Amino acid sequence: MANVNATVPFPANLLPDDGSPAWMSKADNAWQLVAATLVGMQSVPGLIILYGGAVKKKWAVNSAFMSLYAFACVFFCWIVWGYRMSFGDQLLPFWGKPAMALEEVYLFKPAFLGRFPNATMVYFQCVFAAITLILIAGALLGRMNFYAWMLFVPLWLTFSYTFTAFSIWSTNGFLTKMGIIDYSGGYVIHLSSGVAGFTAAYWVGPRLNKDRERFPPNNILLMLAGAGLLWMGWTGFNGGDPYQVNLDASLAVLNTHACTATSLLTWVILDVIFFRKPSVIGAVQGMITGLVCITPAAGVVQGWAALIMGVFSGSVPWVTMMVIHKRSKLLQKVDDTMAVFHTHAIAGTLGGLLTGLFAEPKLNNLFYGTYGKYVGLFYGFHSNMASTGFRQIGIQILGVLFVIVVNVVSTSLICLFIRLFVPLRMSEEDMEIGDEAAHGEEAYAIWGQGDKLENSSTKYGSSIYDDVEAGPPKKKRGGMVEMM
Q1: Which residues, in sequence order, are CB contacts of 424 under 8 Å at separation 6+?
Q2: What 8-state DSSP symbol labels residue 58?
Q3: C-alpha angle with apex 223: 222 to 228, nearest 5 degrees?
C-alpha cells in the first residue's frame, strides 16, 4: 500500500534559491509588480493624455508636461527619502524617519506587509504617490508657473503626502492603530489631492477670464483614451492592495468596476434629465467619482454596497458641481480647472464615510486579519455591535478632518514659501500665449493656431461642459433645463 505520508518534492521552478527565498511568493510578487505598473500607466500615459486632450489647445503641452515632470520627480524623491518617511521607522506619530531605499540589503528584505521584497513595495507605493501629485496638477492647469510647479512637487510630497501616508497606511501610524479603513487611498490619495489642489488653486490664482469663460477640450477622443487607461488601470490600483493574489483582490477588482459603471450611468442620466443632452465629458466625471468613491472600500464591502456607492458617487458630486458650485462664492472664486475638489475631495469623503457604513466584518477580517475591530455601522446594528459601528464612523470622520487640516495647512505654507522665490502664476502675457511662452513648443503646430476650431460653433451648440470646472453656462440653449 502506498505511503500517504510520503513527501512530494516541489517542482524545480518552485524551489527556494538565492533569487527566490522561501519567504517570498512568486505569484504575489509578480501580481504586485503588474498592479504597480497598471497604476503607473494611469499617470504615464493615462493622465498625461487625459489632461493634454481636456484642456484648451494652447495649454496641451504644459498640462501634459506637468504630469510627466511630477511622475519623474516623485520617483526620485521617493526612493531617496520619501518611502521611508511614509512607511519606515517612526519619527512622530504621523511621520517616519527620512532614509534612502536604495541599498540591496534593504530592498531584498521582506516588505512590511505581503510576501514580496521591499523593492516591490517601494515601486508599488511610489506610483500611488506620483498619481496624487498629478491629480493636484489638474486643479492648476492653464496658469501655474512651471518653475513653481518644479518646486511644489518635492515639497508637497515631503511635507504633506508623507504625513497622511504614514498616519493612515503605515503599521505605525496613529490612525492605523485606531482602526481607520482606507483600503486603497480614498483618504491618502483622493481626499488629499482634492483638498490640496483646491488650496493650491486659491494661492496660485485663476486663469485668464476668457479662459475661465471658455475652455473647450482640444481633443475629446484623446481625453477619452486617457480616461480609459485611468479606468482599466484601477484594476491594479485597488486589486493590488491586499498584497496577495487572493479572494479579496478579486472582490476589490469587481467592486471597483461595478461602482464605476453605476456612477457613470447615474451621472449621464442626471445630465439627460436636467440638460436634455448626454455629455461625454460628464460621463468621464461620473467615471472618476465612481473610481474615487469605491477606493477606500473596494475589498471590504459587498457587491450590492458597491452599486449603492455608485449611485451616490454619480449624484452627490454632480449636485456639488452643477448646483452648489454655482451658488457658492468661495467655490466660484477658486479656479479649480479640472474640478478636482468635486471629483476627488467630495467623492473621496463620500467613499470614506460610506465605507464606515457598509464595511463587512468578515471581509475586513480577510483584509486586516482581525475580526471584530473593523465593523461598518450597518453591520453593527445587525450583529449587536452598534457601539463598534458608531466608533468606526467616528474614526472615518476623524480621518477626513485630519486629512483636510493637514493639506490646507501644509499646502498653504508650501505655496507661501515658493512665492518668496518665484511667482506661483504665469504673467498675463504668457497666459495669453500658453505653451509656446512656457516651453517654446506647441501641441499641434502643423495646424496653425486653431482659431477656426476654437471660434467655430454649430447649430447644435457646444458641450454643456465647455469648462470642466465651471459646469453648464447660465444661459439656456435649446433643449436645456435651467437649474439656477
Answers
A1: 144, 145, 148, 203, 204, 205, 415, 418
A2: G
A3: 95
* Contact yes or no for 366/382 (Cβ under 8 A): no
Per-residue pLDDT of 281-291, as tens digits, reads 999 999 999 99
pTM, rounded to two decimals: 0.89
Helix or strand run (H / E) with residue 37: helix 26-41
φ/ψ of 453, rounded to 5, equals -65, -45
Residues 6+ positions from 441 with CB-CB distance below 8 Å: 61, 435
Question: How far is 481 from 466, CA to CA, in rounded Å?
Answer: 17
Query: Where do the DSSP E strands lie in 328-391?
Result: none
Q: Which residue from 190, 158, 152, 192 is spatially nearest to 425, judged by alpha carbons?
A: 152
Compute the Cα dihedral for 273, 274, 277, 283 and give only its sign: negative
pLDDT in tens, 127-151: 999 999 999 999 999 999 999 999 9
CB atoms inside a 10 Å sphere around CB 429: 8
Torsion of CA 366, 93, 405, 130, to 10 degrees: -60
**What residues form DSSP beta bridges with 279?**
none
